[in-house]
Amino acid sequence: MRLVVDLNRCQGYAQCAFLAPDVFAMHGDEGLLYDPQAEAAQRERVAQAVAACPVQAILVDELDLAATAPAAATSSGEASDG
Amino acid sequence: MADSALDQLKRSGRIVVVGASLAGLRAAEVMREKGFAGTLTLIGDEPHEPYDRPPLSKQVLLGKADAEHTLLPRRRDIEAEWRLGVAAIGLDMAARTVKLADGDEVPYDRLLIATGVRARPWPNEAEGELAGVFTLRTREDGAGLARALAAGPRRVLVIGAGFTGSEIASACRERGVDVTVAERGDAPLVGALGGVIGAVAAELHRENGVDLRTGIMVTGLEGDSSGRVRAAHLSDGTTLECDVVVVSLGAQRNTEWLTGSGLGAGPRGIACDAGCRAFDLRGIVTDDIYVAGDVARSPHALFGYQFLSLEHWGNAVAQAETAAHNMLSESTDRRPHLWVPAFWSSQFGVNIKSVGVPSMGTEIMITQGSRAERRFTGVYGYQGRIIGAVTFDNARWLQFYERQIECTAPFPPPFTTVDRRADGQRPIPADFPDPSVPTHGPTITLSGYSPADRRIATFTPAGH
Prior knowledge:
The structure holds two protein chains of two kinds. Chain A is of the alpha+beta class. Chain A contains two helices and four strands.
């Protein structure tokens, strides 16, 4: 699953690193590192982290990611975007 | 009637977005959210779906994430026609078409330009093509540099100590790789945050084992017989042996494709009004062309109506949302993009964040914490008001100062704060370098005429 953290909002509360330590990790006292493409097995933990973030800074894919991305280097034509 | 024209656009119009990165994707999502049911085409010169760049200089270089796996999450299905891996090469404003590198022409009723910036290359092309010489902007750049660091180079040279260069140096040290940073200015981050904070950044580099050399230029790169970089020549006459070089000299705006189009585009970006509508070359606002993200330059009421172009993640998101809203709204429903600039960086284990426009500040005052502890809040003053703030591991204070900036609160702040230390009791000069002296490139470009300067601005159209 794809995810992104708005680090302008993030204030280093570390709830995410507590709830999903394989995806989020504190880097120093306040900085946050995260895996932008978490394993599917982490879905529930990531969902908990999203819900628990005091500043709602974590955005996770709303779409079913089973569908593949548009083929690389497509120069024209329609493609699924999910 | 205007009403029915907008309804028709929403129902069956054609919207083209040039630039398939953060701003382009967010704008497309908002357009669909607002009920746009017509044809939506996203054009991108890279062969990838929109991906996130900040991890490329942080977790990717640390080996904690894969450069291929930074695709941006989707908030909704945007049902777009994707034209990826093909660059836009021209714009015909009269015919309302975008020309593509493969010869196609894509017609539009509304156009959003979000072509962003690219890394400024090493000026000597042959030297820049040596194996082991990198820039860092794209996913391929990130993957290549991560591989080079993982291979255990003997010494990395980073040219330019802005945010990206400093983050790369930090990642090298965390991986135990020897790194030299060469910066033309007097300190790292000096263009964005001034010399007072730059001195703290310089200490961070040195404490973490970076061979930091300031006030110095790299005059040439030298390769071995196999075309691999082996050394760099410096302006002090010394030669540095290195097997990886990262050119981190700021960014260039992707506006060349608009040359001759009649749009108000140049090296500083594409001028637009606060509602993201692009100006044409005559300074007249267009009705159907909008701009968002790093490539846009728009006036901001809070900062003296200076035209700001911001290379900030949050600006790309906010400006894209405003542009998308305005593209599908009657003129009376349009919103201004008055986002307060904000960015973050993470280096040497320190979380650096900023709001406002520090580089407009002439003075700085440390209002919380202390520089010696690398944990503080610095507030920037300009003509008696608060214009920006920076925190080192003190991010929770930023929201407060953001509000102070928004309400043009006085500087120095009239209140006393709980933990103000000896070094912060009065404002001191912020020590920004003369902006006319080139550095690696600022992350905020101020390019408007400031009435406070009482100077006549001379205007040279570039590339037209």
